[in-house]
Amino acid sequence: MNTDVELAEKNVGTQEGKGEKLKRNLKVRHMTMIAIGGAIGTGLFLASGASVSTAGPGGAVLSYLIIGIMVYFVMTSLGEMATLMPVSGSFETYATRFVDPAFGFALGWNYWFSWVMTVPCELAAADIVMKYWFPNSSDIMWSTLFLAILFVLNFMSARAYGEAEFWFAGIKVITCVVFIVVGLLMICGIIGGHPIGMENWHKGNAPFVGGFFGIMAIFMIAGFSFQGTEIVGIAAGESEDPDKNVPKAINSVFWRIMLFYVGAIIIISWIIPYTDPNLINTSLDNVAVSPFTLVFQRAGFAFAAAVMNAVILTSVLSAGNSAMYVATRMLYALAMEDKAPKMFRKVNSRGVPTNSLYLATIFGFVAFLASVYGQNIYIWLLNLVGMTGFIAWVGIAACHYRFRKAYIFQGRDLSALKYKALWFPFGPLFAFAICIIVMLGQNYGAFTGGTIDWNGAVASYCGIPLFFIFWIGYKVAKKTKVVPLKDCDFSMPSE
User: What is the distance between the alpha carbons of residues 260 and 269, in angstroms, rounded to a whole number?
Assistant: First the structure.
């Protein structure tokens, strides 16, 4: 009898099914940078200052550590499944096979909507960034130009996407390393002439400001900042050697992301007091008060704001590039599972799902136009997708729990797994619990002001009932049931 690994290795050249195939063109350096690039962005370069201001230095560090550990367990859960079954659109496939086809349907469309709506969001952000240099330029011009660039990168091949992401993410990584090194030199007194003490950690209510609710608020900011690391699971379907590349990417990415986020927050809180009003005012259209800009300026870098604006532009393009890639692959995966029209199975000679890419591009541009001509509609759409990343993480944790239970129930040998997640079942259960806490507490302020802010509550939480509508609706229509452990399918799609 073939082992699970042998079944997976049958398809190491392509992911195939029903005559359509993707190509395995992504190398380990692409996989690593895809995961890093998905996590490092404007959340670090801009929102990290607000985190220190809200929870204090100690509260911010603690929040990011807890969320970082949770993300580690999500990633190791994903790694165990993606190494054995490296398929594009992995979440939908795993949910369908190990939980319930209806759960897979809801999870897949939830994730597609999340990323297809990220495209116009990043187009709008890129326009704001360009206004720093060209304040009187056209919104439509920049957005159309950047959308064309993202389309071409994704239309060429998965390798082109991976190569672009490698360099986009590389710029962000270099910026973080330089920032931490410069910060340490300032703290030690090598830059600035005198060592910086820990008075900012003892000022006022520091190191913890706002108590439990302050930390809870940063849980949400940290969670949104880390979203995107799971893209490595989607890219596993086009990884050149998933058995080796996926585990390497996951193991290296966690420590690097933790170093960059926690290290940067420590530097910021050490040099800039949490009471500094600039930390509260950080936003995309005011890069001059980014905590990175402030630290570089205090170190004597005269062009810090212009440099950080350029770095933030690469972050925005990186996020848009990833959004286009993920939306395309998820729609392709849904079509392969007969949960989207068959036309989206079409793949060109370079292994790109072209019809899926066309829809993501059109949807992205139309949604961007909605942001220009109908702000209220667009804001509601953005609020709707705000929850989707956490729903995806909950789905990964649930899938892995059922995956491992079914694997053992069917008498399979755990030693045959080329990557095994640590601390099962604690890992997926911990990740599941923390995600639920963050999701429910996303806008707790809507219920604590004496009168309930129904508009804010509905905008923040409507993603949850919508997910259940998709889940239950498909379940009723198709009469699906929870997959028994004995029937969970561990094979790759047949050639």
Answer: 14
The helix (H) or strand (E) run that includes residue 307 is helix 304-336
User: Which residues lie below 8 Å from residue 200, measured CB to CB, with a gap of 6+?
Assistant: 57, 206, 269, 270, 271, 272, 273, 274
The reported pTM is: 0.87
Q: What is the CA radius of gyration of the chain?
A: 22
Cα separation, 420 vs 490, in Å, equals: 15
Residues 264-282 as b/e (b if ≥16 CB within 10 A, e otherwise) read bbbbbbbbbbbbbebbeeb
Taken in order of first residue, the domains within the chain and their CATH numbers are 4-17+25-479 (1.20.1740.10)
Report whether pLDDT(3) > 50: no
Collapsing DSSP states into helix, strand and coil, what is residue 137?
A: coil
- CA distance from start to end of the chain: 18
Residue type, 302: A
| Neighbouring residues of 363: CB distance < 8 A, sequence distance ≥ 6 | 116, 119, 327
More confident residue, 88 or 264: 264
B/e letters for 414-426, b = 16+ CB within 10 Å, e = fewer, are: eeebbbebeebee
Query: Residue 5: is its pLDDT beyond 60?
Result: no
The C-alpha atoms of residue 189 and residue 209 are separated, in whole angstroms, by 27
Confidence band for 282, pLDDT divided at 50, 70 and 90: low
Which value, to the nearest 10 degrees, does the dihedral of the CA atoms of residues 111, 113, 115, 120 take? -170
DSSP character for 2? -
| 331-345 as b/e: b if 16+ CB within 10 A | bbbbbbbebbeeebb
In terms of Cβ atoms closer than 10 Å to its own Cβ (0-12, 13-18, 19+), residue 321 is buried
d(CA 261, CA 43): 10
pLDDT band per the 50, 70, 90 thresholds, residue 220? confident
284-338: per-residue pLDDT in tens? 667 767 888 889 988 888 888 888 889 988 988 888 888 898 899 899 989 988 9
Interstrand relation of 14-17 and 20-23 (parallel, antiparallel or unpaired):
antiparallel
Tokens coding 474:
């498909």
Average pLDDT (98-106) is 96
Task: Output phi, psi for 450, to 5 deg.
Answer: 90, -55
The 3-state secondary structure of 16-74 reads: EECCEEEECCECHHHHHHHHHHHHCCHHHHCHHHHHHHHHHHHHHHHHHHHHHHHHHHH
pLDDT given at position 6? 42
Record the tokens describing residue 371, joined without a space.
Answer: 């942001």
CA–CA distance, 411 with 424 (Å, rounded to integer): 17
- Distance between alpha carbon 181 and the CA centroid of its chain, in Å? 26
- Integer Cα distance of 375 and 359 in angstroms: 22
